[in-house]
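Q: Glycoside hydrolase family 73 protein, please. Structure only.
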Amino acid sequence: MIIFLTALVLIGAGIFGYHRYQEYRQVAQTEQVATEHNAFVKKVAPYAIYLGKEYGVLPSITIAQAILESDWGRSTLAKDYNNYFGVKGTDPNNTKVLQTKEYTNGQWITINGRFRVYSDYRESMKDHAELLVNGTTWNSQQYQQVLHSKDYIEAAVALQTDGYATDPGYTTKIIRVIQKYNLKKYDEGIK
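A: Structure for Glycoside hydrolase family 73 protein:
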């Protein structure tokens, strides 16, 4: 009986210890993710501010789009090709064909898209700002609402209405990221 009780106590202690270990591991992973996220914002924010002053694009929008479009710089497109915004292209000399998901006719589909390849993330950020300023080849005024927005909420709505992304939840996602990481602080002095 004593051996049985001792075994139960040891098993219980082991289970309790295992659960404590799992909690510790989860906290450590959460802290690591937070550190990685902060490092990403710290990396792109100064250039987003510079581009905001140069082109009039709110830095909070640029940073939030870089976060969403590149999965914090971890997507294949971002890691291997420095494309933080999913910018497509047509020239085989400076693009790479990759699979992507597009929202079409009320559903997500997988397609092959030709995406721009950049020498570094700053080149990608500048191209993104120039796309918003100059529009597309078929509509030079396409993103003017984004540029003339008074704040990040108006700009996020304009991104959706101006056709930047096919994701019907894009506006909400941009706004949530800006609010969660207090990215609006980078907009001060831009407009």
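A: Brief note, in case it's useful. The two ends are 77 Å apart (CA to CA).
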